Amino acid sequence: MKPIKMVDLHRQYLSMKSEIDQAISSVLERTDFILGSAVRDFEVDLARYLDVPFAVGCGSGTDALQIAMMALGIGPGDEVITTPFTFVATAETIVLLGARPVYVDIDPRTYNLQADQLEEKITSRTKAIVPVHLYGQPADMDPILRLARDRGLHVIEDTAQAIGARYHDRPAGTMGDVGCLSFFPSKNLGAFGDAGALITRDESLASRCRMIAVHGSRAKYQHEILGVNSRLDTLQAAVLKAKLPYLEAWTQARIEVARKYDQGLSGLPIVVPHVASGVRHVYHQYSIRSDRRDALGEFLKNRGIAHAVHYPIPLHRQPAFRQQVDPDDKFPVAEAVSREIISLPIFPEMEDSEIETVVSSVRRFYAG
């Protein structure tokens, strides 16, 4: 049986090889490797795609989160409310800036943070809320935004997994103060290395983020504020600019793969992804829940089918965050989901035969 990857990046590269090669070649010919013309060109295209006035490239999605928090003045003594069920970067950046992550349990269907639990977590030290649009599905933003407005809090959207997703016809990442994007190679829009961006409607915030990303500077050797070194690499920007026109077609292909999975896996004792009303889920991951997760994963592995667990340990249980967490804190939904979640292969170029192989293998596992 031909192995099935989680994401086949080589297949995608071959589908547009000439454009990618030309994009890279153009940078090599210009030799404008740092903050070259492709960076600004991609920022303009990205802002247009997401219908926002400002996009600021940076080194990674993790950097985007840190830069956003720095630009909004988050630091020692502050608290930031977020989800315990996400990639480590969401909370890591909070702690690195001296603030404390405060967790809210997740919705048992969407796995995004439960908006109706937010208010009880707010204290005089709360500075911001960081909803994560997990797996490609937007969090329930309207109540989050209302609460943030009423309580004077910032909203930083962790949109690392959800470029192209929409919430009541609004692009994910564009509703709060700032959205943070990742272009890690396996993302729906992936670079050929680390890359990220921030998006916002606030000109002064965009300017501050741009300064922070280049050592707090607007002019060479003049440093107005403390910053970091997180420039979007010109080669990566050129690759992303070449790929961006294909993103909508790739998104539709992911949605179609998910539809076929939904249909093929129906009737099994698993939980397939739930899509909330009024949202466009872009399926960065197709993650199911199974009370036999580990055995299912081993079965798929033995049949040459890749799988992943996003995520096996909630953030409040991670040793790195032990000092920031009250040992009595419990987040039962996040803990239950972390024991049962498993992601199946999904990528735009996935062939029907591969989908059928995954489906038939899962069904065979449950047939015993």
Could you describe the 3D structure shown?
The protein is 38% helix and 14% strand. With 368 residues, the protein is α/β, with parallel strands linked by helices. The strands form four sheets. It has a seven-stranded mixed beta sheet, with helices on both faces. Strands 7-6-12 form a three-stranded antiparallel beta sheet, with no helix packed on it. A two-stranded antiparallel sheet has the order 10-11. The longest helix is centred in the last third of the chain and has 19 residues, at 247-265.
Strand and helix layout:
Layout: H1 9-15, H2 17-30, H3 37-50, E1 54-58, H4 61-71, E2 79-82, H5 89-96, E3 100-103, E4 126-130, H6 141-151, E5 154-158, E6 166-167, E7 170-171, E8 178-182, E9 196-200, H7 203-213, E10 217-219, E11 222-223, H8 234-243, H9 247-265, E12 279-280, E13 286-289, H10 293-302, H11 332-340, E14 341-344, H12 352-367
Parallel strand pairs: 2-3, 2-4, 4-5, 5-8
Antiparallel strand pairs: 1-9, 6-7, 6-12, 8-9, 10-11, 13-14
Keywords:
alpha/beta, 12 helices, 368 residues, 7-stranded mixed sheet, single chain
